[in-house]
Design a protein that fits this description.
This protein is an all-beta fold. The protein is 0% helix and 52% strand.
């Protein structure tokens, strides 16, 4: 079965950093478009960053210049390095596989205090 397992969320002060990890099993991440999405209370889930099968990243405007998506093919893991975090980044962050997304992780909470 396919499983995506996120980790690395936590509580940080505004301006701080976190690195999220998503370990995939049951799929080879090199054969899927992978990504990170987030959902804040009262808001719809939104894409944050995607990485193509070729390894090319794509970012949504709110995180452009602050977040970096990357992958480790040997570990079958994708990452989201989040710098200069802002309170509006507070959300549950989900890992996805496929585009449109076919597979989802269960999420990891990121909370940014002002």
């Amino acid at each position: 079965q396919v499983q995506l397992r996120e980790s690395g969320g936590g509580l940080v002060q505004a301006g701080g950093s976190l690195r999220l990890s998503c370990v995939a099993s049951g799929i080879d991440i090199a054969r899927f478009k992978m990504g990170w999405h987030r959902q804040a209370p009262g808001k719809q889930r939104e894409a944050v960053a995607l990485i193509t099968r070729e390894g090319t990243p794509d970012y949504q405007d709110p995180v452009q210049g602050r977040f970096i998506i990357s992958r480790d093919l040997r570990r079958n893991t994708i990452f989201l390095q989040m710098d200069d975090l802002k309170p509006e980044d507070t959300a549950v962050y989900y890992c996805s596989g496929g585009w449109p997304a076919q597979f989802w992780g269960q999420g990891t909470q990121v909370t940014v205090e002002s």
